[in-house]
Write a structure and sequence with these properties.
By secondary structure, the protein is an alpha/beta fold. Helix content is about 30%, strand content about 25%. It is built from 7 helices and 10 strands. The chain binds adenosine-5'-diphosphate (ADP) and magnesium ion.
Length: about 220
């Protein structure tokens, strides 16, 4: 599902360097990413999603060379094929929960918002136990409920790859386990893969594999 080869990346005005010689994630595989703060975990997810472009190297998702697409191509590819659960959720406060979940279908002509998609959004909200909140605004929900909205939005396009950035970071242990159960069940139904950054070492045994960022050469970080 993900093939990375010889990836090098640096920000324009920073001495931080990310270097990932090789990283593979198979179809259906659930891989956890761990590593110290500032080691480049979020940067890597943004590169895989095509939000950033590597300075050199190859990133292939499915059979698509993401690094070789132009800006518009990467955006459409990401919205249509990758579910991204952001570190701070990035929900839109002035939209209802339902409209937040439907958001991928509102921001590109490549996807068509129709009755079937709305039905799927509501079914996901039911699966994640937030259906009773769909007319409310994200600001009226608890942290755990907002988290579930972000996951519903990431799953709406039925992506074969989900990228999650410390998605369970601020939740109590019961909520964490429950959300992970729901997410894993959804992925398994669709043979989808997951790459999840996490600080929760008690969750690691649930993943197929753990990638430790300390194995990648990164410089410019405090403890390098
Ligand atoms: P992690 O997610 O592992 O905590 P990040 O990928 O967020 O790490 O950040 C890696 C390094 O890149 C940090 O030193 C951070 O300060 C730097 N960084 C992150 N975003 C930017 C940016 N937009 N411009 C310049 N430097 C950045
Ligand atoms: Mg991060």
């Amino acid at each position: 599902m993900i093939h990375i080869q010889g990836l090098e990346f640096r920000y324009a005005h920073s001495d931080f360097r990310l270097s990932v010689p090789s990283l593979q994630v198979g179809a259906r595989e659930r891989v956890a990413v761990i590593g110290p703060s500032g080691s480049g975990k979020t940067t890597l997810l943004n590169l895989i999603a095509g939000i950033f472009v590597p300075n050199s190297g190859e990133i292939t998702v499915g059979n698509v060379p993401v690094h070789a697409l132009d800006d518009a191509g990467r955006r459409v590819f990401r919205i249509s094929n990758i579910g991204f659960v952001f570190q701070d959720f990035e929900l839109i406060d002035y939209l209802s929960v339902l409209d937040n979940i439907l958001h991928p279908y509102r921001i590109t002509r490549a996807l068509r918002l129709n009755k079937e998609v709305r039905g799927r959004a509501i079914a996901l909200a039911e699966q994640m136990a937030i259906a009773k909140h769909i007319k409310r605004r994200p600001g009226e929900l608890s942290q755990g409920e907002r988290q579930r909205v972000a996951i519903c939005r990431a799953l709406l396009t039925q992506p074969k790859l989900v990228l999650a950035d410390e998605a369970t970071g601020n939740l109590d242990p019961d909520n964490k386990t429950q959300i992970l159960d729901l997410l894993f069940a959804n992925l398994a139904e669709r043979d989808a893969a997951l790459l999840a950054v996490t600080h929760d070492h008690d969750l690691l045994p649930r993943f197929d594999r753990v990638e430790d960022f300390r194995a990648f050469r990164a410089s410019g970080e405090a403890n390098a």
